[in-house]
Protein: DUF1206 domain-containing protein
Amino acid sequence: MTGNPASHAVRQAENSPVFRVLARLGYAVNGLLHVLIGIIALTVALGSGGGESADQTGALGQLAANPAGRALLWVIVVGLVALGLWQVVAGFQVRNSDPKKAWGKRASEFGKAVAYLAVGATALTFALGGSKSSSDSSQSASATALAAPGGVFAIVVVGLVVAGIGVFFVFRGVTRRFTKDLSLPSGPVGTAVVVVGAAGYIAKGIALAVVGVLFIVAAVTFDPAKATGMDGALKALAALPFGTVILIAVGVGLIAYGAYLGARARWGRL
Structure:
């Protein structure tokens, strides 16, 4: 396998300095989006939101509202597409003596690639002057699935997977295992990155877990309107007792996660 043209192309891509810089740019722009989502969440918590969705589409919509932001959207598209392709390359480069572990790692890398490319495609839509709502997309997909044979089961599985990813994020934040992805400097800077990374992973995990629960609720109640993605999850948190405090904490945590991604753009291991 190591001698075939496909493997050679993958190795060349992985060793390309330009490709590496663009992949790091992907982490940076993803961090910017999370900072904007966190800010929107704070405005929702404080009752001063302007109707923006507290998710990637809301953040992209804010950028598209002004000329400078629209130019930045093209940078976001390039960065996220490059990062998505980098994850594809990383998936093909996985090596493990245990085939099950190897395929599990490949699935993880390819899953990240799909997520980055999907957000990159959404950013492209906004950059071209269009718009879309992730909440509407989630509801439409859920309605279609619920109408199909076995749709309820499929939505429950999706909800469990998303909730499981959320729990995994919280676990990585609490145990600080995300530091394996970094080559941090010693001293206060390294300590600060670890602190914001832990807070960010926990906040992102809580939001994703709520998204998963909402998908399960949509399936159980046969109500696709409840499957509203990140925006619906954060607004659901606001409706809880002490929801304002919880949503402020999550909003600050998402901003911290964005800051961590900025640090990963600088010190991340590729």
